[in-house]
Amino acid sequence: MEWKRRRVARTTAFWWWIVQLGVFCQTAPAPQIPATPKRPAVDTYHGVAVTDDYRWLENYADPIVRAWSDAQNHFTRKYLDAVPVRASLYDQLKQLYSQTSPR
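The structure corresponding to this sequence follows.
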């Protein structure tokens, strides 16, 4: 029965932190996301024309795609690093997931 109690405690703590993170995200100002331009590419499959506006992002060897990816990563890292509960959330999850299973 001890493992059930610990499992409930872990689940409860996990969801409490998720709710806290959600509250923060709702009250934080909306940051400016880097733009992603559309560059339509049209393929025809069985007589149906299908447009893919973002196929150009599949070519990671292209320096423009790498620059776009770097901008997205920089934006995301800056936003996540500013989350005030990030450190405590990380510590709590690390503690929960480092415990061994009773089975």
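The mean pLDDT is 82.
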